[in-house]
Design a protein that fits this description.
129 residues; flat; alpha/beta
Amino acid sequence: MSYDRPPGLPIVDAKTPAVLVPASPVTRDEVAGLCAEVRALLEATTGAGVVLVEVVGPGPPGLGTVDLLARLALTARRAGGRIRLRDPVPELRALLDLVGLRFEMEGQVEQREPALRVQEEVEPGEPAV
């Protein structure tokens, strides 16, 4: 099954997402309130479907932060949206990678090292390196 693309530029909804800045450190009692706040923000910003979460606080992030983000993501998903992390510190990125959670992130451009020993041109008959 296929369809023709409509002519012209694609329609892009340029709504500004809501921002949530939880106080750090977050206690277990505050998690339910923050989940309710994410749900309310998604309902209030119809069309955006995204809540930006700024995780800032003293010291390196811990498993409590990971638990909070996982619960916020699940709540947003159930409400038909998603969360995006704004400017996460490298320690939080590493911790999320360690536990296997993936989030959309904005703010910090990922720095990559150039590939080593990459040949730009290959002549026929040359052995592979």
